[in-house]
Amino acid sequence: MRKTIFAVLAAVSLWVTARADEGMWLMEQLAGQYPTLVKRGLQLKEYDIYNPNGTSLKDAVVSFDGGCTGEVISFQGLVLTNHHCGYDAIQRLSSVEHNYLQDGYWAKSFADELPAKGVVVTFIDRIEDVTSYVQSELKKIKKGNGMEFLSPSYLEGLAQKKYGEAYLRSHPGTELEIKPFYNGNKYLLFIKKVYSDIRFVGAPPSSIGKFGADTDNWRYPRHTGDFSIFRIYADANGNPAAYSKDNVPLHPKRWFNISTSGVEKGSFAMIMGFPGRTNHFALPDEIREWRDIDNQIRIRMRGIRQEVMLREMLADPKINIMYAAKYARSQNGHKRAMGANWGISRSGFMTFSQETMERVKGWATEGRTGSKARVRYAQSITDIDGAIKERAAMRREYWLLDEGIFQAIELTRAPGLDLKPTDLEKAFHSYCNEDYSPVVDAKIAKAVLTEYIQQAKQWPEALRQGLNKYGSVEAYVDALFAQSYFTSEQGYARFMKLSQEEQKKALGEDPVAVFASSVRGRMKELREALRPFDTKIDKARRDYLAGISLAGGGASVGEGLSSLWPDANSTLRFTYGEVRGYSPSDAVEYKVPTTLRGIMEKENPSSWEFVVPDRLKQIYQNQSYGHGSRWTVKQADGSYEMPVNFCATTHTTGGNSGSPVFNKYGHLIGINFDRNWEGVAGDIKYLPDYQRSIICDIRYILLIIDEVGGAKRLIDELSLVTDPM
Ligand code: ARG
Ligand code: ASP
């Protein structure tokens, strides 16, 4: 008897507790995870990491420019993030004479720090649980659409209402946000401080910051110095203020100490940051949909497009530059989709999702008292599955159109009658600019349309008519590009000379304008047709998650959910694990860390992706790893190995880029910048054997600042520490 009770308890707790190293936890869940963290080696007190009533390490973690994470690393507001996170800002500050992307940049003084207009850095000052407040407000709604529980604008209204305008007026730079968790079973309010005078301080050249570029993207073993440095400026009181030359460097509440002691296999590693999106409560049918529709179509269509692009790029250096960024963007998503489907194909991937679903179903339908009240939980599964089945054909059509035409053929952004006259110019130059080749676009169009018409059923009307008229994709595309105002600047200039009446007539007849607006129109129709299914799934998932909680033995929904991590939604989270390599396939093993030797092995002066700058080669040859080699560790034979990147079992996703990685003493050991492609299915289910965060070793960052940048003033500003023995 005792044995069975024990077995049941064990099963329940196994089921509701996430497995080792899985989890993007809320700060408030630190208490629950703390015993495990200590067991794994953490030497900090809980309040050192997160202290709701005082300062803690979390106060040194910032959201960088919306999509990334950064960390404060000095008493004068220096912020460290990835090179790819600072990329847009650095590009905007660059010119032909000052190409900071290509050459790097190191401000020699405060006065040389360059205002990065538009960049914002956000601190999370306070987090409050407002679940009961939101739930009671939701109950008061008389005539709503039933979707307020997830609506950002509705929730924003509630946040304003709770705090009032007076509060915001007396707290400059403060913003409030209420976010739903577990699909609306919990709500947290974030009080944020947003700084907008951010200045660019330093970055390595792209040959270091983006070394390996697209070929190495999503890959380990990796050798990228993916970092850049900014500084937060504030008014004299330390409050956020618009750019002014009178602003001063921020004196932050907290900043990270930086460990020079290094990491090795097995070292404890913890990350805080702002992961963007995951879907780990997906039902098996949703995972199949992701695999068979979304990913599969993306892989097929982007594959066709990228093949054409690459052929053209390799044949012509000019095209190579023009299409580099477009190719990179396409390829980033392509590789991610391939990794996801690879992960899903691992044996047992679906089991967790299947078991959870069956558990909820079994509990909801079991014939005991109270089971009637549980009907909605079983119904939620039926609703989600039903919506997935019903929308399948439509979703396929949408993805084929989006990936196969809209995102593939640049001309689909062309002016058309569906756009406002004031938007025509913007539409035209969104694709027809110095990086546009109508020749390449036409070749891509021929390739993707040939595939599209075989796979899709509900073509845009213009395509149907065009193919009827011209007889083949080849002839239709040729006609599109031959007869339009919108494939060149000259054509557009002719269009601009027409009177308003003539322009309207031209938009109704120009084959490209007709094609583009027909594609957009069809996409809009499909989006609208799909919306009721999204709504149904969103509502049902709220019940499904409540069901998971109650079926798992939670006395209340909130209690049961508290031991599960909520899906990522760009809010502050922590994750932990250890520094460890992996075996991607039989007999292959990837180790930690990678070293400067590996950069020299990958060097290829004839490929822009693998150029090694001379200065780095010198450093390698002379082993000048910091004055007195202080950024590295001496090997047994007296030589030095310079670590570059390592990977860890921490659970991260897009948005975690730039996140601080710290050791058991809370000292910074690196910054997160990517994942391995074998691990991207971790957005649905964490794969302990395969998923790894890819991290730039802080010692490599110090080496580059010191020896490549020569920026001693920055090194002097940092709090460098050695770990206790
Ligand atoms: N894979 C990284 C992420 O998803 C992007 C790294 C940027 N580098 C690149 N070569 N595209 O954000
Ligand atoms: N490269 C991603 C980012 O920029 C990180 C990831 O997807 O793991 O956030």
Automatic annotation (TrEMBL):
<dbReference type="InterPro" id="IPR009003">
    <property type="entry name" value="Peptidase_S1_PA"/>
</dbReference>
<dbReference type="InterPro" id="IPR000126">
    <property type="entry name" value="V8_ser_AS"/>
</dbReference>
<dbReference type="GO" id="GO:0006508">
    <property type="term" value="P:proteolysis"/>
</dbReference>
<dbReference type="InterPro" id="IPR043504">
    <property type="entry name" value="Peptidase_S1_PA_chymotrypsin"/>
</dbReference>
<keyword id="KW-0732">Signal</keyword>
<dbReference type="InterPro" id="IPR019500">
    <property type="entry name" value="Pep_S46"/>
</dbReference>
<dbReference type="Pfam" id="PF10459">
    <property type="entry name" value="Peptidase_S46"/>
</dbReference>
<keyword id="KW-0645">Protease</keyword>
<keyword id="KW-0031">Aminopeptidase</keyword>
<dbReference type="GO" id="GO:0043171">
    <property type="term" value="P:peptide catabolic process"/>
</dbReference>
<keyword id="KW-0720">Serine protease</keyword>
<protein>
    <submittedName>
        <fullName>Peptidase S46</fullName>
    </submittedName>
</protein>
<feature type="signal peptide">
    <location>
        <begin position="1"/>
        <end position="20"/>
    </location>
</feature>
<comment type="similarity">
    <text>Belongs to the peptidase S46 family.</text>
</comment>
<dbReference type="GO" id="GO:0070009">
    <property type="term" value="F:serine-type aminopeptidase activity"/>
</dbReference>
<keyword id="KW-0378">Hydrolase</keyword>
<dbReference type="GO" id="GO:0008239">
    <property type="term" value="F:dipeptidyl-peptidase activity"/>
</dbReference>
